[in-house]
Design a protein that fits this description.
With about 240 residues, this protein is mostly helical. Helices cover about 85% and strands about 0% of the residues.
Length: about 240
């Protein structure tokens, strides 16, 4: 409840990044609901098959909104003046509609190719497209930060932390699953199949950390808490000796 209220207040204060976070959380909820249905209902049930396809739609939207978060962080640093006059809630809503529309297009393409062996190829290709963009956003942001004199140090750390976290989530959790779908030899690897499916199921949980890092001062508070815990541990060790 507190989590939702904080996000809503940031949207009302004309921060557009939380809009992408809200949609990312919605896509994560869709995935979680579909996973629950898949566990509860029989595996060969028609309803289970439908929810599996809906799960793919939510997974596709999740990657799309991760890219939106990374793009927004990049524009804040690389094109601050241009982005300042175009950063509106209306524009963000339009972008969210486009992401959901593309996810639905991928959804219907999977349904249309339901009887084909390559039914997941369009889905896998769509998931793979953001990879070079994630790398470009991170590299461009780090390069632009050296010339961004007016940006506070804590803001720089927060933006870089968000971009690194997005790239890590995508690389560790999504990329093995994408390789499994695209490479035919990988589909016969049981170990890769189990690991990739397990990793991609953890993506909704990993997305929660994006909200923590996107909040102002969250990185500094986290570092301060770690340092405080370290100092308390050292003090307790000294007192015992």
């Amino acid at each position: 409840m507190i989590f939702s209220t904080n996000v809503f207040l940031q949207v009302r204060n004309d921060h557009v990044a939380p809009i992408y976070i809200i949609n990312l959380l919605i896509s994560d909820l869709i995935q979680l609901c579909c996973m629950i249905v898949e566990v509860v209902l029989p595996e060969d049930s028609i309803i289970t098959t439908i929810f599996r396809i809906i799960y793919l739609c939510g997974l596709t939207a999740s990657v799309g909104f991760m890219m939106c978060v990374a793009l927004e962080r990049y524009l804040v640093i690389a094109w601050p003046l241009w982005y300042r006059f175009r950063r509106t809630i209306k524009t963000s809503v339009v972008v969210c509609v486009v992401v959901w529309t593309l996810s639905l297009v991928t959804f219907f393409s999977v349904v249309f190719l339901a009887d084909s062996d390559d039914m997941l190829i369009p889905f896998a290709v769509f998931l793979l497209l953001p990879l070079p963009l994630f790398i470009f956003f991170l590299g461009g942001t780090v390069k632009a930060l050296s010339a961004a004199i007016s940006v506070p140090a804590d803001e720089k750390r927060r933006i870089v932390a968000v971009l690194i976290l997005v790239l890590l989530i995508y690389t560790l959790l999504f990329l093995p699953y994408i390789i499994l779908l695209l490479v035919e030899e990988a589909r016969h690897n049981i170990t890769l199949g189990v690991v990739s499916f397990m990793f991609v199921k953890f993506s909704p949980l990993a997305d929660v950390f994006l909200y923590v890092f996107i909040r102002k001062g969250a990185v500094d508070k986290l570092l301060a808490s770690l340092c405080r815990c370290r100092m308390d541990s050292d003090d307790s060790n000294r007192s015992t000796t």
